[in-house]
């Protein structure tokens, strides 16, 4: 088992290097001079050239990449052009907000989706199953930002139940419990969007995982030896279905982190998604590179976690 | 089709595609989805025959008009007819879905067959590339690429296609790995066929079921990505209409609040299209599953 984890970790290295090379090359081929905002406009052309040369603007992309890596391994991810402070500081301020949103969405959707999926599977072709399946299909089909806009229009603008955007009321200095309530109030709408979509796909997955397990011979055996239906479903079927369901949940974590860009942008939720979108529009190279890689790393670790989890809970998996 | 058996008796034999078709037809939602999609495609193709306005015809005296008899879905900020632009927008959105999926399918199928058939080093390298692409946060990379390539309909197709091939590749690889152990592949090898012939003439047709299902879902994904990118202003550019860039009207709070006809119809069309494609995709998956019997 230990060896399996180490091997998986080692496999991640070339993948991560590949991701960083592609991301870096891609971002540094964007046209335009990102430093135009940074350098004093009154500077004469020669001095400007010299400054740009000094910070390595004219280096070729491979040279830039090597310079960047050698700094990055020492923990220096560079300065954000827009925010004029270290990229790590900018990201640290934002990543918490993204994690708060995505973990809450994951938790709530798991609590809702798994029981619904089980009921849907055990009562296949019932009215409940039919309605749940259609609602789940709606959830996986609706564009996140359209759903978000609909919620903003009805619940925030028309009914004024929730704030339109942001994470806290601007201009009011709240502390303690009131601050938590204020954040929850702002979080409600983006959370509804992410949770609904995550619930839909997890429910579909739970349903089909349960249906597959329920067809197995050992379920027939369990029924044949006279076990009550509850024991058959929750002890025999669910435990086996949970193997694939739990791996899906861990994979979704990575997906939620990277997939929340649109939802965050629509609600101007100050997380990594909004940050990266603004970074791309501002051509903030150091910030885009590090932000993209950070999210990719999270996805990579989520996938690793799901593989390990799979190996741990499923005794049939061989580690070699 | 009839097959003559040894005793020269005609046997009733239903070909596989007919079994699948029958199974598909019994799925009401899948049939409904197919009908909706056909209607959407027809209205997009014959848009000029259906509407009475030009796509970009402006009328600055009639901006932001509410839906009326003259303009079924009102007019936009330049006095253009929204209904007209929706139909033309359908052309853009549907073709982005189709072409980006074609790109994904070609990349995914070729790499998937190579990885599954040759195994070993080819498999390791290709699967690492898949890992790399699967870890990219789609929208971040897509908006970066859109910033490099510039916003246009072709670039949206390329971006979505190039970023979206991994799931097809993995499915095809898994299929090929099990198919290549079957006797007919051994027979083909014994007959001295080249690897390329075996891969593309004998193994590929056996993976069509998987490819069809995933391509269907890929089209939905392509349409969603177009809508998202255009909504952020990085996809299809005005004056060319697409469902995504029409939805961007809702970024204006006034329009969001008071002019529903500007953004709700296009959003609903994206939603209905994706929903129909998912209905069809589910129907196809059940219909083409060889494990299920009649």
TrEMBL record, chain A:
Q: Which domain of life is it from?
A: Bacteria
Could you mention a single GO BP entry for this protein? transmembrane transport
Q: Which residues cross the membrane?
A: 9-28, 99-118, 130-152, 183-203, 245-267, 287-313
Protein's membrane topology: Multi-pass membrane protein
Which keywords label this protein?
Cell membrane, Membrane, Transmembrane, Transmembrane helix, Transport
UniProt domain ABC transmembrane type-1: residue ranges: 95-306
Cell compartment(s), UniProt: Cell membrane
> One GO term of the cellular component aspect?
plasma membrane
Main site of residence?
Answer: membrane
What Pfam families does this protein's entry cite? BPD_transp_1 (PF00528), BPD_transp_1_N (PF19300)
Chain segments annotated as coiled-coil in the UniProt record: none
Question: Which CDD domains does the record associate with it?
Answer: TM_PBP2
InterPro entries tied to this protein: BPD_transp_1_N, MetI-like, MetI-like_sf
Q: Which family does it belong to?
A: Belongs to the binding-protein-dependent transport system permease family.
Which PANTHER family does this chain map to?
A: DIPEPTIDE TRANSPORT SYSTEM PERMEASE PROTEIN DPPB-RELATED (PTHR43163)
- According to UniProt, the name of this protein is Oligopeptide ABC transporter (Permease)
Q: Which source organism?
A: [Clostridium] ultunense Esp
TrEMBL record, chain B:
What's its membrane topology? Multi-pass membrane protein
Q: Entry's InterPro entries?
A: BP-dependent_transpt_permease, MetI-like, MetI-like_sf, Oligopeptide_permease_AppC, OppC_N
**Domain ABC transmembrane type-1: from-to ranges:** 90-281
Q: Name one GO biological process term.
A: transmembrane transport
Sorted keywords for this record are: Cell membrane, Membrane, Transmembrane, Transmembrane helix, Transport
CDD domains recorded = TM_PBP2
Q: Which GO terms describe its cellular component?
A: plasma membrane
Entry annotated with the keyword Flavoprotein: no
- The keyword RNA-binding is annotated on this UniProt entry: no
Q: Where are the transmembrane segments?
A: 29-51, 94-118, 125-147, 153-172, 203-224, 260-281
Subcellular location, record wording: Cell membrane
Q: Which family does it belong to?
A: Belongs to the binding-protein-dependent transport system permease family.
Could you identify this protein by its name? Oligopeptide ABC transporter (Permease)
Q: Which organism is it from?
A: [Clostridium] ultunense Esp
Q: What is the lineage of its organism?
A: Bacteria, Bacillati, Bacillota, Tissierellia, Tissierellales
